[in-house]
């Protein structure tokens, strides 16, 4: 099974100059714990609910500071045609529960987000399901 068969399409994203407050409100309104940040041409980082609660508070940030100041700049991604089992292994190795999905290696357009939950909802392989359960208990 390929990522495109399980991913969430039409991902939401924010401009990288939004405030921490705006990012948090968007996550609340979208019922999401993860938002990509973009400039005019590319993804520049990702912000998670954990970034807001742990990094912003620990660093004494104002809610009016830019979300990019607490975002993770190392953007992890996969491609829509990648095999789901390989993606789960990548998530386990990277200790993450979600990845951005790009269309292909040439264009690298953002086309979705894939989470361990997305994969689990479509999983028919017991061994892969067990790997997903173990991964979701281990990582934030």
Automatic annotation (TrEMBL):
Q: CBS domain location, by residue?
A: 7-63, 71-130
Q: Which organism is it from?
A: Pseudidiomarina halophila
Q: Which UniProt keywords apply?
A: CBS domain, Repeat
The family database entries (Gene3D superfamilies) matched by this protein are listed as: CBS-domain
Protein name as it appears in the record: CBS domain-containing protein
Q: Does the keyword Cytoplasm apply?
A: no
PANTHER family under this entry? CBS DOMAIN-CONTAINING PROTEIN CBSX2, CHLOROPLASTIC, CBS DOMAIN-CONTAINING PROTEIN YHCV
Please give the SMART domains that the UniProt record associates with this protein. Answer: CBS
Q: Which SUPFAM superfamilies match?
A: CBS-domain pair
Keyword Repeat among record annotations:
yes
Q: Which domain of life does the UniProt lineage start with?
A: Bacteria
